[in-house]
Amino acid sequence: MRILLVEDEKMLAETVRRGLTNEGFVVDVTHDGVSGLWAATENPYDVILLDLMLPLKNGYDVLKEIRERKIWTPVLMLTAKDGEYDQTDAFDLGADDYLTKPFSFLVLVARIRALIRRGAPERPMVLTLGTLSLDPVSRSVRRGDELIGLTPREYGLLQYLMRRHDQVVSKNEILDNVWDPAFEGGDNVVEVYIGYLRRKIDGPFGVQTLTTVRGMGYQISADKPGRSESTSGT
Questions:
Q1: What is the DSSP pairing of strand 97-101 with strand 75-80?
Q2: Tens digit of pLDDT for each residue in 69-127?
Q3: Which domains does the chain have, with CATH numbers?
């Protein structure tokens, strides 16, 4: 099994490389984003371990370009706790897993083996629900032909809901899957972002796809004629 490690902390990279080699993996190492992107696009790998804060090109840009080139190798993001971005942004761009430094080497190996077992099936290019579409590669959202501008958090929320369309999802499920695990705020933040999202994907188009199921959570489904805000709530 061949692994690409893109990590600018050379001592850490060497420690990880040596440990993975002892576990039977073949490990290629690069120390900046440009070299990492080149290696990822020129060679076949079973897993890519990608640091977030890299010189020349950060890990998010590397990941975005890898996915834009339709390379679906599983990517495990490595980042410090005080990273500028969070787990949601990594998953939005196509990461498969996420590990915060400092991490246990045993946990790293377990995550790698899990990704290898899962493999890298080609991912669906566009999620579609009625006239609403979401393209995970370009991170664009459209209602028909009209482009809708969303913040990264709104995009992550919409993507999660669309992947579970026609199901009722609770606030806790949304927090667990869209917000960072370290988030310590209340679940009312979900209501706020549901309202933001509804006003962008539904309101201007006179349709209702995102509804509140009182006492249970939220549901997204194919287009229905729009109703008043007081009917569905936030």
A1: parallel
A2: 878 889 998 887 544 455 556 666 678 888 888 889 999 999 999 888 876 655 556 88
A3: 2-118 (3.40.50.2300), 127-232 (1.10.10.10)
